Amino acid sequence: MKIDYRDIRKERKEKRENKRNNSHLLFLASCFLFLNLVSCKSEFADNSDRFKEGVFEIPAGDNFVKETIIRKDSIQISKYGNSVDTLSIKWKNNFFYTLKYIHPKNDLQKDPMYVQINKIYDDKYDFTVRIGFSKFSQKGTVYKIE
Questions:
Q1: pLDDT band of 2, cuts 50, 70, 90
Q2: What pLDDT is stored for residue 3 in this prediction?
Q3: pLDDT tens, 25-78?
């Protein structure tokens, strides 16, 4: 039996080239993953919990009368016109909370209001509110004034 050393050398050379090519692919994939992670930095840090307490205002607009809101713990006091209402507030997370009138004055106020925070800015946030399980929803902006 005759051994052809040229075939063995050729086979070893091909294996080394394959290993080198695999190393290059692994390096490129690692670089791509690193760049992808670095470039996906969030626009802002999640400090949206700053809207859970304080004094806020909803300016008068198309669908709203001017309203001043005071939040502390699980209570929200809403002042608009000559009226003052007290609501309980329960936060599901930093972007969703439920409001419920403590002393409802009519049937509509008996339903909870579900509020979704859509976009956060430095001193305000855009929201969508839905009353009860109805399809009615309304959008607005809340400004933090204190």
A1: low
A2: 65
A3: 666 666 566 666 556 655 555 666 889 999 999 998 877 789 999 999 999 999
Separation between Cα atoms, residue 52 and residue 30, nearest integer Å: 41
Question: Which residues on adjacent β-strands are paired with residue 116?
Answer: 96, 128
- pLDDT, one tens digit per residue, over 80-94 is 989 999 999 999 999
- CA dist., res. 88 & res. 109, Å (int): 12
As a whole number of angstroms, the distance between CA 61 and CA 65 comes to: 6
Torsion from C-alpha of 54, 102, 131, 144, nearest 10 degrees: -10
What span, in angstroms and rounded, lies between the C-alpha atoms of 89 and 114? 10
Q: Are strands 113-120 and 96-101 parallel, antiparallel or unpaired?
A: antiparallel
Residue 24 dihedral angles phi and psi, to the nearest 5°: -65, -45
Report CA-CA distances (Å) from 99 to 29, 52, 96, 107, 112.
48, 12, 10, 15, 6
DSSP reduced 3-state for 41: coil
Residue 140: count other Cβ atoms within 10 Å of its Cβ: 17
